[in-house]
Design goal:
This protein has about 400 residues and is α/β, with parallel strands linked by helices. It contains 15 helices and 12 strands. Bound molecules: uridine-5'-diphosphate.
Length: about 400
């Protein structure tokens, strides 16, 4: 695993030195992260790298998970979709069950952080511990990775009574938030350029992965990497591919896997397999967790990468692809707007026809594709690398954790 000093050549020496200096202000403080899954999806992806890097800088960072059963995660998936603005009816008994599972987790989790950093809606109710004996001096931060600006009112109102009790909230973009009674901090997510998911790979490793999946390296490869989730529109991706294929030869790779907190994955995967039918040029890959090298290789081997999401939080897969200098065609939704400036660092379209047109253009014009890819990598270098994120989080923890101490003043 890469060490903090290895990032100097990518992010610059000064930023690494600054991170180390800032981290020293957190000596003796415990930063406790809590979310709902250790694998699958962007939150786990970030925490898996953020925690070791924080530890290396001397911060006592910890990571706990809430426990929930299938029914709980079906409910939280409904809440997730409703927060994204989908018109979903969530019955009262679902909220009741959510509260019961939260109560169980409140009993089981050892709240040992000076700063308790809660990620996303699934564990949001843990804030109730603040009112219990022994926790009043802790600071609680809610990290929302979802665009809740158009949230379904019923789902949002249920969560709001928890949100109001946090000390801070963190959103990825100003466009994602709502008017809240608590302070809001803006921190966008990031990718780790030295992780297995994003590090440079040898041509042999890339061709080995293509061979394993029987993908032809001599032909165009159009790829979308995402959990099998309707909001990532994998069926729409197949429509795009079929339209493109009328004009330009290509293969389609739809690779994804599940997350333990997403119960819909298998159902959506089956729908995708059915729609792909017997087309030998469509590769629907249900990857096990920890397929980081495979995903890295598939992204690097692709001619064009798609992210046809209907709704999106940040969309780490976009930054992962941009960092690999790939031309990306994505929908202009959620955090994708932060990552792609249309015509400069990628192309944006929400429709099947528009997306197909752009894919066709890129497949037919390699120099245009290369120019977009070059800009894309620089955009990620300046905005979405883990070193920037690490610095932002440390500053937030200092502000939250030391707020009552005199030396807070140095941050103001
Ligand atoms: N991912 C993965 N395996 C898969 C599908 C996705 O490791 O089968 C990773 C992907 O590379 C990215 C993250 O999971 O790092 C997904 O994050 P994103 O923000 O794109 O979407 P989310 O799943 O959080 O909605």
């Amino acid at each position: 695993m890469a060490s903090i000093n290895d990032y100097k050549s990518i992010a610059g020496e000064e930023i690494i030195e600054e991170i180390q200096k800032l981290a020293s202000f957190l000596k003796g403080k415990i930063i406790q992260n809590i979310n709902s899954t250790s694998v699958g999806g962007g939150v786990a992806e970030i925490l898996a790298r953020m925690i070791p890097l924080l530890k290396e800088t001397g911060v006592d960072a910890r990571w706990d998970l809430i426990k929930g059963d299938g029914k709980f995660f079906e409910i939280t998936k409904k809440i997730h979709n409703a927060l994204h603005g989908m018109n979903i009816d969530i019955p009262e008994q679902d909220f009741k069950y959510f509260t019961e599972v939260t109560e169980r987790n409140l009993k089981e989790i050892n709240f040992n952080g000076d700063v308790v950093f809660i990620h996303d809606p699934q564990p949001i109710g843990l804030i109730q511990v603040k009112k219990r004996p022994g926790h009043k001096d802790k600071k609680f931060i809610w990290r929302c990775h979802i665009d809740i600006s158009n949230a379904n009112a019923r789902a949002f109102n249920f969560l709001k009574k928890f949100i109001d009790n946090y000390d801070y909230s963190v959103f990825s973009s100003p466009l994602f938030s709502k008017k809240l009674t608590i302070p809001q901090v803006l921190i966008s997510p990031s990718i780790d350029p030295l992780s297995d998911k994003n590090k440079e790979l040898s041509p042999e490793t890339i061709s080995g992965v293509l061979e394993k999946f029987k993908i032809d390296p001599s032909r165009n490869i159009v790829t979308q990497i995402s959990r099998f989730d309707r909001l990532k529109d994998p069926l729409g991706v197949i429509d795009v591919y079929r339209l493109v294929k009328k004009y330009v030869d290509c293969q389609l790779v739809l690779a994804g896997g599940g997350a333990t907190d997403d119960p819909e994955g298998m159902e959506v995967y089956k729908e995708v397999v059915e729609k792909a039918g017997d087309d030998k040029d469509i590769f629907v890959l249900n990857l096990p967790p920890e397929s980081n090298i495979e995903i890295n290789a598939l992204q690097r081997a692709s001619t064009v990468i798609l992210q046809k999401s209907i709704k999106e939080g940040f969309g780490l897969t976009v930054s992962e692809s941009l960092w690999k200098s790939k031309p990306v065609v994505a929908s202009g939704v959620g955090g994708i707007f932060l990552q792609i400036t249309h015509g400069r660092s990628g192309l944006l379209s929400k429709t099947i026809e528009g997306t197909a047109l752009y894919v066709k253009q890129l497949l037919q014009n390699a120099s245009y594709a290369a120019e977009l890819g070059k800009n894309a990598r620089e955009h990620v270098r300046h905005n979405f690398l883990i070193t920037r994120h690490l610095r932002d989080y440390i500053l937030l923890f200092i502000k939250a954790g030391l707020e009552t101490r005199e030396n807070t003043i140095f941050l103001e």
